[in-house]
Specification:
CATH superfamily: 2-C-methyl-D-erythritol 2,4-cyclodiphosphate synthase
Distance between the termini: 10 Å
Oligomer: single chain
Largest sheet: 5 strands, mixed
Structural class: alpha+beta
CATH architecture: 2-Layer Sandwich
CATH class: Alpha Beta
Bound molecules: magnesium ion
Length: 157
């Protein structure tokens, strides 16, 4: 068994689509980034890569690469899975926390789990997603961005 953690944060800005866990969420702002800026998928991908002892997603998908501008982060997740597979490892379960003031995530949780289940190749029952506010404290509390934490367990295939 191998365990890994991931953390990511992106700034909220107008004129972008908010994508969390591969699902477009209606909101007045979206996350800024070189990819679709899906902070939840990035944290999970880094947890998988970390558990496998591999470099982080910036190594595989450098934000200096114009070829991957606007890339769907489900591709990044699938890459992390495939890199873990090359080391003989597969995902047992993933748990994660989104930290954001707005919007409410609960109406979209089931759709996000469906998407992540497909991308990760594990059942929905093996995926945890929680959401919490930052209680108005700091930059996330002011609604300037969204952060995500994730932990992942891998086992030898
Ligand atoms: Mg990121």
């Amino acid at each position: 068994m191998r365990i890994g953690t991931g953390y990511d944060i992106h700034r909220l800005t107008e004129g972008r689509t908010l994508v969390l866990g591969g699902v477009e969420i209606p909101y007045k702002k979206g996350l800024l980034g070189h990819s679709d800026a899906d902070v939840l998928s990035h944290a999970i991908a880094d947890a998988i890569l970390g558990a496998a002892g591999l470099p982080d997603i910036g190594f595989f998908f450098p934000n200096s690469d114009p070829e991957i501008e606007g890339i769907d982060s489900q591709i990044i997740l699938r890459c992390a899975i495939s890199e873990a597979h090359t080391k003989g490892l597969c995902v047992v379960n993933v748990d994660s926390t989104l930290i954001l003031e707005e919007p409410k995530i609960s109406p979209y949780l089931s759709a996000i789990k469906d998407q992540l289940s497909e991308s990760l190749g594990i059942p929905k029952s093996s995926i945890g997603i929680k959401a919490t506010t930052h209680e108005g404290i700091g930059d996330i509390g002011k609604g300037l961005g969204i952060a995500a934490q994730a932990v992942c367990l891998l086992e030898e295939a």
